[in-house]
Design goal:
174 residues; alpha+beta; Alpha-D-Glucose-1,6-Bisphosphate, Chain A, domain 4; 2 domains; six-stranded antiparallel sheet; 3 helices
Length: 174
């Protein structure tokens, strides 16, 4: 074998080795990417700060949840809990269709915290959806949180109720 053929052979095997390394590296990078685009459940409360009195925020909260069966309605503690509901009983979302078994149920928990009394009083509302799912009779109940859509809609409804109340008050003033 001549010197020229040895150099050519070593170059082609080096190029083959380099191509193999690049291919393996790209496969590793592609396999580490995200596999699903489904929104993960939230682990925290959805919350919003309202610049209004505690009484008006509590009234707006009760109006917003009038279609839900209420289990706990404690004004002094600022706690409102709904009774357990079937997944499609009060709120139906296209993103959660066929996600839960027929035995699934959920509950909404709303807490209200008022700031110090004064002319610029604010109230922080926190809404959380807890989903209880039991796969079969023998397994335990698994508890997960919602995806945040229903909680966001409830906070929006409360905001709209407060806006309507302010506009009605302006109309009633001489």
């Amino acid at each position: 074998m001549t010197k020229h053929k040895k150099i050519k052979k070593s170059l082609t095997t080096g190029a083959h080795f380099l191509k193999t390394i690049i291919l393996l590296f790209s496969l590793i990078l592609m396999s580490c990417g995200p596999t699903t685009t489904q929104k993960k459940p939230t682990t925290e409360y959805k919350q919003r700060l309202f610049k209004a009195s505690f009484d008006s925020v509590w009234k707006a909260l009760q109006l917003s949840l009038q279609n839900y069966p209420i289990l706990v309605n404690n004004y002094d503690k600022g706690l409102l809990k709904t009774d357990f509901l079937a997944p499609d009983e009060a709120w139906s979302s296209d993103t959660q269709k066929d996600q839960f078994k027929s035995s699934a149920k959920y509950q909404l928990i709303v807490t209200a915290v008022k700031s110090a009394p004064g002319p610029n009083q604010t109230v922080r509302l926190k809404v959380k959806k807890l989903i209880f799912n039991q796969k079969d009779f023998f397994s335990g109940v698994s508890k997960t949180t919602g995806n945040g859509y229903e909680e966001t809609v409830i906070l929006y409804r409360i905001h709209r109720e407060l806006q309507l109340e302010k506009k009605i008050q302006k109309l009633n003033q001489p």
